[in-house]
Amino acid sequence: MSKKVLVCGAGGFIGGHLVEYLRKQGFGDIRAIDRKPFDEWYQIHDYAESDILDLQHRDACYQAMRDVDIVYNLAADMGGMGFIENNKALCMLSVLINTHLLEAAKDEGVGRFFYASSACVYNASKQDEVDNPGLAEADAYPAMPEDGYGWEKLFSERMCRHFREDFGIEARVARFHNVYGPHGTFEGGREKAPAAICRKVIDAKLSGSGEIEIWGDGEQTRSFMYIDDCTKGTHDILNSDILDPINLGSEEMVSINGLVDIVEDIAGVTLKRNYKLDAPKGVRGRNSDNTMIRELMGWEPSVSLREGMEKTYRWIYDQVADRYPGRGTVRAAVGSETLVS
Ligand code: NAD
Ligand code: GDD
Question: Is the CB of 232 under 6 A from ligand 1?
Fold first, then answer.
């Protein structure tokens, strides 16, 4: 395939996986851009042309866009609830990235443009109960998104629409629901619940503390999408004729307590749970309604939470095990019988 693809945010979690997915789809000419130094990229693929640019700057976007046919914009200053609740201005500044990328895409005559939006665009009043029946695409309006991060996503979605209507940019938008998997953030403040719970359970297991801290009362609900479903869905949505923003998420809703149950079972431990009620909690209940993606694409994310969490747990275990000399020396320990003591 001779088309040149630009992946923005390629040093991040989803971007790093997407570059590899695209190569497997036959794309040989991939430009991978992120603003982080290379030693902070989760994955660097030697077959891609990797570069460091800050895409909040207009000139950088034009430089990145040179000779490009297809753009995936996954670059954003973001994280889980611990980050987005405390960094609203930084989250909103990501509007500069998508704005300048759209302008550059228009001027450079790019063929297709993908924007990664979020379930955080949905009206908060539809997420007040733990038993959420699923958020359908129309539930984003009237607008009452997540303050800061969600408003930026909703505005940028809208900008994609108007660049399509006014300038003919073939923009496509997916609303990702909480994505997890290996090669992502699991500590430092930006981690989301699946990785955070894995890390906390592993720490409790290897340190022998026997307890973990959970934000909120644990009854709040979410659905989590495994990274392989995310990369496939992203690529397929870009290539589709779906013009309006569409959910890309799992319908397998679980409480945070249920998520902890799964990770404890994978680890082969039962821990004392300490609930931190004043921690960042976000909405009470969130789930994806996949009616539209099933109808329009005949497909939906399908990797089970248990299967995806086993792979995620193994990877995080490998990252932290050497912090516990003599206890974490068995690679990817799953289940109590593999623990070296
Ligand atoms: P990530 O933080 O791992 O990756 C984002 C990358 O963008 C980072 O490596 C970061 O350095 C880079 N970046 C930030 N500002 C930049 C700039 N000015 N110039 C160049 N690079 C910049 O996050 P992710 O989980 O891979 O998310 C990718 C996209 O998907 C983001 O737009 C995010 O908002 C969206 N999204 C993710 C989730 C999720 O659960 N992971 C859910 C909904 C939406
Ligand atoms: N991060 C985190 N860490 N969350 C925890 C923890 C913990 O140790 N313990 C419990 N939680 C709870 C949070 O309080 C929240 O109620 C729930 O787990 C989910 O938290 P996150 O995974 O951090 O975020 P989110 O699902 O509310 O929002 C995420 O998903 C959106 C898309 O669906 C964010 O990553 C957004 O950036 C993303 O767009």
Answer: no
Closest ligand to residue 180's CA: 1
| Residue 146 DSSP label | -
Q: What local confidence, expressed as pLDDT, does residue 340 receive? A: 34
Residues of the chain with pLDDT under 50: 329-333, 336-341
Q: Provide the pLDDT for residue 29.
A: 97
Q: What are the catalytic residues?
A: 149
* Plot region of 281 (φ>0 → left; ψ -120 to 50 → alpha; else → beta): alpha
CA nearest to 8, candidates 71, 58, 66: 71
Q: Exposed, middle or buried by CB within 10 Å (0-12, 13-18, 19+), for 188?
A: exposed
Domains recognised in the chain with CATH numbers: 5-179+225-248 (3.40.50.720), 182-223+253-286+304-323 (3.90.25.10)
The neighbour count for residue 164, using CB atoms within 10 Å, is 17
Tell me the pTM. Answer: 0.96
Dist. CA 8 → ligand 1 center (Å) = 9
Q: Which among 7, 8, 14 is the best mutation to test ligand 1's pocket, defined by most ligand atoms within 8 Å of the CB?
A: 14
Closest CA to 198 of 309, 121, 318: 309
Q: Identify the residue whose tokens are 């290897």.
A: 206
295 CA → ligand 1 middle, Å: 28
